[in-house]
Amino acid sequence: MKKQLLFILLALLSANMFSQSFTDHFEDKTLRLDYIFSGNTESQSVTVRDLKQLPQWAGRRVNLDSLLLNGNGQIVVHDAATNDVIYREAFSSLFQEWLTTPEAQSVPKAFENTYLVPFPKNKVSVEVLFRKRDGQYESKCRLEIDPRDILIKKMDNKATPPYTYLHKGGEVEKTINVVIVAEGYTPSEMNKFKEHARITCEQIFAHEPFGEMKNRFNFVAVETPSMESGVGVPRNNEWKHTAFSSHFDTFYSERYLTTSHLFDLHDALAGIPYAHIIILANTSVYGGGGIFNAYTLTTTGHPNFEPVVVHEFGHSFAGLADEYFYLGDIFDDTYPHDVEPWEPNITTLTDFASKWEKQLSANTPVPTDINSAHKHKVGVYEGAGYSAKGIYRPTPDCRMKTNAFPVFCPVCQRAISDLVKFYTE
């Protein structure tokens, strides 16, 4: 009898594992969801603009229904027949960041957002959730999708720009697929772009744990030409005709370089296997930006290009927070001090047990006095997430704090390593 019960339990476990397999629910294709996020601090709406089918799936094929990082928002795919979650992904967005600015209190705005999920075999419902100030998640949109819908536009590789593999760690289905695209490079400047893309790849792998895990990544340089060289600098009344219409002065912050033309960005990549995006901007003006599971955007002509592109990739790929802070209340309202941030490398101590508590050595004070930092490999130092008070970081310095510091701190390294394993194991 005991053997029979054991056999039944093993069979049930095996069946449950099989039910979570990629091929049970999905085809080797991508469902691209184009959304418009709009509103202001009072109310927000999420509407679907387009549904598209891409010829291959280049995202993760494991841990499909779970998350390692919760993000500022989530895309959740439910099986329409059972309502079971069959895929889940976290994200952040420029729209949600804008909601923390004073402008969002008085005027409504709309932002493009694109998300990729594996193409379902059967009917599904796709839900978009936003993280609220209290850390809870609120459903903003839920759409039923029939994969046989004739209005899902099939994208092919007929208009795919030239691309080159800079590093190939393995087959698409077994690796993390990153594309590096050109912004503000004219056709005659593509050799310059390819050199900058090569440097980007080298710099990322020069930082651990990326270097020791490089066989889990593919990096591809994509030649997306622009009509004009450079990018927009609105404060100087400079606007450029570029591939993705990026510009500085986002939210009136001089160094913040972003693009809100995400449909154009993803259209350019339709025939290329990708899950993560790095945009290189052809300008010597200092700045950049990184949005979790959206893109890294950084300049290539400034002396700090190399550390900045790694820092921004820490944001967009690994969901790491900025560990620097300002004296005063410039961005003090970005993180509520009574809610634990979802990012793995900062804490308000509201739920420190969920962060790097286990990485502290015995008898490390919490918080940790910066004057005793030489005694601790990892501590809990006040000042992070743009706030001088109430938010804490793991070490005095880190790649996520200053350009001068050469490495990611131990907590950031652990977070990156865990995420890479989550995507590939």
Topology:
Blueprint: H1 2-19, H2 22-25, E1 26-39, E2 44-54, E3 73-79, E4 85-91, H3 94-98, E5 109-120, E6 124-131, E7 137-145, E8 153-154, E9 163-168, E10 176-183, H4 190-205, E11 217-222, H5 262-268, E12 276-281, E13 288-291, E14 295-299, H6 305-316, E15 325-326, E16 381-384, E17 386-393, H7 410-424
Parallel strand pairs: 2-8, 10-11, 10-12, 12-14, 15-17
Antiparallel strand pairs: 1-2, 1-5, 3-4, 3-6, 6-7, 9-11, 13-14, 16-17
Helix pairs in contact: 4-6
Give a verbal description of the structure.
This protein has 425 residues and is α/β, with parallel strands linked by helices. Among the domains are: 133 residues, Sandwich (Immunoglobulin-like); 154 residues, Collagenase (Catalytic Domain) (3-Layer(aba) Sandwich). It contains 7 helices and 17 strands. It has a 6-stranded mixed beta sheet with strand order 9-11-10-12-14-13. A 4-stranded mixed beta sheet has the order 5-1-2-8. Helix 4 crosses helix 6. The longest helix is centred in the N-terminal third of the chain and has 18 residues. The radius of gyration is 22 Å and the shape is globular. The two termini are 35 Å apart.
- What is the CATH class designation of the domain at 163-316? Alpha Beta
Tell me, briefly, the overall form. Answer: globular
How do the strands line up in the largest sheet?
Answer: 9-11-10-12-14-13
- H/E order of the elements? HHEEEEHEEEEEEHEHEEEHEEEH
Please give the CATH architecture of the domain at 163-316.
3-Layer(aba) Sandwich
Helix fraction bin: 10-25%
Counted by DSSP, the helix tally is 7
Gyration radius, in Å = 22 Å
Strand portion: 25-35%
